[in-house]
Amino acid sequence: MKVLITGVTGFIGRRLEKFIDPADEIYALCLPSLGSLGSGVKVVLGDLADLSSFSARLAEINPDVCIHLAWQGLPDYGFEASRKNLEQGTALFRFLAEECGCCRIVALGSCWEYGKSLGSCREDDTVATSSYFVWAKHALCDMGLMLAAKYQLSFVWMRLFYVYGPGQRSESLIPTLIRSLKQGDLPVVKTPANANDFVFVDDAAKALLLAAKKDVLTGIYNVGTGWACPVWKVCEILERSMGRKPEYAQQLRASTAAPTAEFWADMSKTEKILGWRAGVSLEQGLQECIHSWGGER
Predict the structure, then answer these.
(1) Domain extent listing, the chain
(2) What is the pTM of this model?
(3) What is the CATH number of domain 2-162+198-223?
(4) Sheet of strand 219-223, all strands in order from the earlier edge strand to the far edge
(5) CA 269 and chain centroid, separation
(6) pLDDT tens for residues 19-72?
């Protein structure tokens, strides 16, 4: 099977390579400045902002599957960045469907599409367009679903919840907590009672590859654990993993009011149809983060 991957040098993309089937032909769309990739990956030079820079090569390859991870400019969620990513994704999807005969497109959605602050999130819940980022993501999803119906291809929209792990941006929550704890500082957290559905990056990568390989119905699928963990509890797990008493976690818990956000993925559809569930516990994932960022044991 020939698989095209965009965004392979990003947070999740970098973890895909360790789980790739060696029997597949893997092509990664990359800018010339990004250098070489793993030995099993064939580089397609090009820029998503300019489809003509790689369209001829893409037509030669005729990929069976595309895993579209790229979303440039993060953490910029503003209008211009969102619009550009929507236009790039739309152009790519159309070319794959109309010129390459691509059989399946797997793309990244976001739990933010639900617009919920409390409770379980089901794939058939109404989307709440609360930001330019959500608008662009949902519009790209609609485009993929339309192309799937028109060209009889499979389109799988994977709504990721709070993916964490080695390689994520240093200003993200968990790297920030680890950095504060290593320095002996009480983490500065505005809402320590708020709870998120944290899913380890390797689990997310496996879910994407499974969706690319398995013959599943076109549609939207959640990628989470099915439960939400409050931030103070994450701090407690980190402190215990570092061999410390959870003193800072207790301070955070004592200082907090009721949560303003506590939502999680309903995983029944993904488990039933895709046959996937998260395999890495939060304790295991956080220990790997500590090891990756040089924390103490």
Answers:
(1) 2-162+198-223, 168-197+226-264+280-292
(2) 0.93
(3) 3.40.50.720
(4) 41-45, 25-30, 2-6, 65-68, 104-110, 154-160, 219-223
(5) 18
(6) 988 889 999 999 876 655 666 789 999 999 999 999 999 999 999 999 999 999
